[in-house]
Protein: Putative xylogalacturonan beta-1,3-xylosyltransferase
Amino acid sequence: MGQQKLSLFRLKTNRLLWLTAITVAAIVVYRYFQFAYGNNTLPYGFYVEKISKSGSSRFGAADLPFEPEIFNNVTIFNQANYTGERGPETIIRTRTSEKKDTISTPGFVSESEISSNKSSGFDESDERSSVDSFRLSGNESTAEKAKNLGLSSYNNTMCTNLTKEVDISSGSEHKLAAPTDFTSSISHSTEVSPNFTHPVLTNGPNETDSVNDERFKTSEDDVNIRGKNSSTTILAKENKDSDIPVPEVTSISEMNKLLLQNHASNRSMKPRWSSVVDQELLQARSEIENAPVVENVENLYAPLYRNVSTFKRSYELMEQTLKVYVYREGSKPIMHSPYLVGIYASEGWFMKLMEAHKRFVTKDPKKAHLFYLPFSSRMLEETLYVKNSPSFSNLIQYLHNYVDLISGKHPYWNRTGGADHFLVACHDWAPAETNYHLANCIRALCNADVKEGFVFGKDVSLPETNVYSGQNPTKRIGGQPASKRTTLAFFAGSMHGYVRPILMQHWENKDPDIKIFSKLPRSKANRNYVDYMRSSKYCICAKGYEVNSPRVVEAIFYECVPVIISDNFVPPFFEVLNWESFAVIISEKDIPNLKSILLSIPQSRYLQMQMMVKKVQHHFLWHKNPVKYDIFHMILHSIWYNRVFTARAS
Structure:
């Protein structure tokens, strides 16, 4: 009996030892694979195979200066100005317009509707898109200001994959319960516009299924690719040690330094094969850098510019040399469908004039120095965005498919990784929509925010122009002479964002010299608003949800000195214009000192600035037939100028 108990005890002990050994071995194996691929937990013990650095992509990774990180076939570029280790944090504020919802034709707004919408002096309130987004990028001070003002509830969440995690504004007019699933698929949006054809060319893994699947992730040291079915070029890792640091609040002087440093560093991709256009661009750069000194130039008042000599020479070379190839691919209404009225009209007018231009457009892509992607960010939102959806991932996917379309059909995108391609987009979402597959392009953006990935020396700040008439875009410009401007400063607008409520708190009905309104009485053709701008010395251009505002150009239209209150906003045509010569730029923290700052400007200085506003005005005017130095040519010049200074020989 004792012998049987002893045998049973030994058997149980052996089993226990075996179980312990198996458990320990399993833990060791688990830890081994977990350590090899970071802190991510592997689902169901799947082994995640590293992508070989040599890869099987159709292109190698040699000579490429930087690489985006790949999540789920979405390319997040590590740009020179990006300061955080995490993805951009996004708040999407949902606002709808009853008037907008009654429009039967997508993207069409009548002039009478615009006049009605704008009669209270609101630029963004009625005509902005149904969703406004702004990135915090870890900016705690911004979030804290919004929290303290009680403007919205917020929850900073990481933007991962194509999904935008959001915090919905709790405003009284438009409430939306936060859904549990933030992913919006392209098939979902197709239901909204059943007659619209998406250029879907890829057959990659399903977005929703692969969001949390480790099989589609790579280790940090790998060379990443966009997807096995994508035609776009493989990109190499960026050397973060060479990144130029960007301050939390970037002043104009610091922006100047970043522009010069980024032009000097020249991080664009080396062309994969040689072309005569590369030599032409390098020759143009040499001539611009060694431009002969000029003093008196017709229509160019020297103090308005950083360097009038280099601008004059660069503009001349653009007229003599530049050729642009406009892609014909893509369907209306997103592609080739210019939107000509309202606050997003800049992108539409540029598209209309660019596609019809005979001097700059070439039908031979081999002769092109630049390639234009003719899409409308406004029509992208109008056509594909699902109302009240917290996600616009389908909009990003559309652009991804378009890049695959042109890169699969033409070789030119892959020659430079898109560095010689450009887009012009005025919608608030454009930085987020284009910061994936189009981030290597030259992006002309109205929402030119240093903290939203705007790259000095590559990207262009696009003027936001409020066009009231598609037939007469220069209607209602001009204002009172300086001697008859009796109001020191003026502002009227909706309480968007955190800056305007601070402005109201300190100055609404507080001082007879400063006219600050949250709402003006309605008037025909917005007469009250226009009259104030025409009769004020300084016009306050305070940011809303985003850094940009049409008030900057409106002030120039009405010959009122702009006072820009918008930290990290890159003013239009920053490569060329000396904004401090004709505008006042005030930090958001200095709003309480607004009057003392303006009164400290001597009358002689004010008169000079007001005169310069009138002289710079012609750079901001649209014409049905473009004229020299007008806004069309200035936008194109900024794109040309940045391409010249980022071009490389093969």
Observations:
- The chain is about 35% helix and 10% strand.
- The CA atoms of residues 75 and 436 lie 5 Å apart.
- The first strand starts at residue 69 and ends at 71.
